[in-house]
Amino acid sequence: MSKKTYFFLILILGSLTALGPFSIDMYLPGFPAIAKDLHTTAAKVSLSLSGYFIGISLGQLLYGPLLDRFGRKPPLYAGLIVYILAAAGCALATSIDGLILMRVIQAIGSCAAAVASVAMVRDLFPVKDNAKVFSLLLLVVGASPMIAPTVGGYVTAAWGWQAVFVILMGMGVAILLAVFLWLPASYAPDRSISLKPRPILRNFWQVLKDPQFYTYAFTGAIAFSGLFAYVSGSPILFMEVFHTSGKEYGWIFAFLSVGFIGSSQINTLLLRKYKSEQVVFAALAGQVLVALVFLTVALSGLLTLPITLVFLFLFLCCIGFTNPNAAALSLAPFTRNGGSASALMGAVQMGMGTLISVIMSLFEVPSAIPMVMAMAGSSTLALLVLLTGRRRITAPVEVQSESEAALLH
C-alpha cells in the first residue's frame, strides 16, 4: 500500500469516525439558546445528548450483522441517508421532546459510519498496524472537539442553534458522496450470516465470551465513559458555574481536546517500543490517580477555573492513550465477524456513555462534583476490570510487532 493510498484511506475513515463526535460537540454551546427557545432547562436539553448516545448504542448492534451480511458500503449508505434526514428534523424541531426523538434517529444513522469505519480498519490494514491506525483516526477525529464547539458557538450566536444542524446535514451529504466515489469495497458480503434474532445473538455471544474481547472492551468502555461525563457536564460547569460565554466555552473545549488528541498521537511513538497491553495499564493507572486527586480538590471546595482546566487536560491525556489500544486489543482476535465485534464494542462503549450522561442530567444544581465523581468512579472501575479480566486471557492476540521503525509502508 502506497503512502498516498494509506493517507487517503485514513482521511475518509477518519471523516466517517468524526461524524458522530461533530454531532455531539457542535451543538453544546447552544444549550442555553435551545433551552430558551424550547421553553425548558439546560438539564432537560442534556437529555438530547443522552438520546443520541442511546441511538448509537442500539444502532451499532443493528449495523454489525448488516455490515457482515451485505458488505460495508450498502448499510453505510442507508445510515448516512437516515442521518441527513434526521439532522434536518433537528433543525425543524419545535419542542424538546421532538428534538430528543430526532437526535435518537440521527444517532442511529451516524453509528453506521462509526461501526463501518472501525470494521474497515480491520479489513484494510494488517492486525499489527491496527492500534496505530486507530491513533491516526483519532488525529482526524481530533478536529471535531477542537473545531466543532468553537464553530458551534459562533454559528449559534450569528444564526441560531438550528443552523448547527443544517451544517451537520451538509457534512452528511459530503461524506456520503466521498464514500460513494472513493472508498473501496473492503469486505465481500457473507450471505451465510443470518439476520434472524437467534443467530445474531449467538454471533454476539461468540464475540462476547472471548476473554480478550470482554476484558479490553469493557475496560476501554468504562474508562472512556469518563469522557462522556465531561462532555455531558461541561456545558453546565463552564457556562453556569464559571459563567463563560458560549464562544468562550467553545475555545475551552478546543484547548482541552489538545490533550486527548496529542496523547493519542504520542501513542504511535510509544507503540514502537511498548506493547498495547503495557500502554493501557500505565495510562489507566494514571487516569485513576488524576481523577482521585481531582475529586479530592473538588470536595475540598478549592476548584477554580485554571485548576479545573489542568485536571481535565491531564484526564483527557490519559484517555487518549487508553482508548485506541483498548479498541485494537478488543478487535484483534476477530476476522470473519469483525463487523459484529466492532458493533458490540461500540455498543458497550456507548451504553456506558449513555448511563453516565443520564446520571449527569439528573443533577439540576450547577456543580463540578457530580462530573468529577463520575470520572473518578469510572476510572477506578475500569482499572479493576482490567486487573481481573487479563488473568483469564490465556492466548493473547498481539496487535503490533514489538519494534517497528516506521508507521507508513
From TrEMBL:
This protein's source sits in the domain of life called Bacteria
Cross-referenced SUPFAM superfamilies? MFS general substrate transporter (SSF103473)
Xref: Gene3D superfamilies: Multidrug resistance protein D
Q: Which CDD domains match?
A: MFS_MdfA_MDR_like
**Chief location of this protein within or outside the cell:** membrane
Q: Which GO terms describe its molecular function?
A: sodium:proton antiporter activity; xenobiotic transmembrane transporter activity
What topology in the membrane does the UniProt record assign?
A: Multi-pass membrane protein
Q: Where does the record place it?
A: Cell membrane
Provide this UniProt record's keywords sorted from A to Z: Cell membrane, Membrane, Transmembrane, Transmembrane helix, Transport
Q: Where is the Major facilitator superfamily (MFS) profile domain?
A: 9-394
* Gene Ontology BP terms: xenobiotic detoxification by transmembrane export across the plasma membrane
What is one Pfam family matched by this protein?
MFS_1
Q: Name one GO cellular component term.
A: plasma membrane
Q: Which residues cross the membrane?
A: 45-64, 76-94, 100-121, 133-155, 161-183, 213-231, 251-272, 279-303, 309-331, 343-363, 369-387
Checking PROSITE patterns in the record gives:
MFS
What family does the Swiss-Prot or TrEMBL record give for this protein? Belongs to the major facilitator superfamily. Bcr/CmlA family.
Protein name (record) = Drug resistance transporter, Bcr/CflA subfamily
Q: Can you name the source organism?
A: Spirosoma linguale (strain ATCC 33905 / DSM 74 / LMG 10896 / Claus 1)
Q: What is the lineage of its organism?
A: Bacteria, Pseudomonadati, Bacteroidota, Cytophagia, Cytophagales
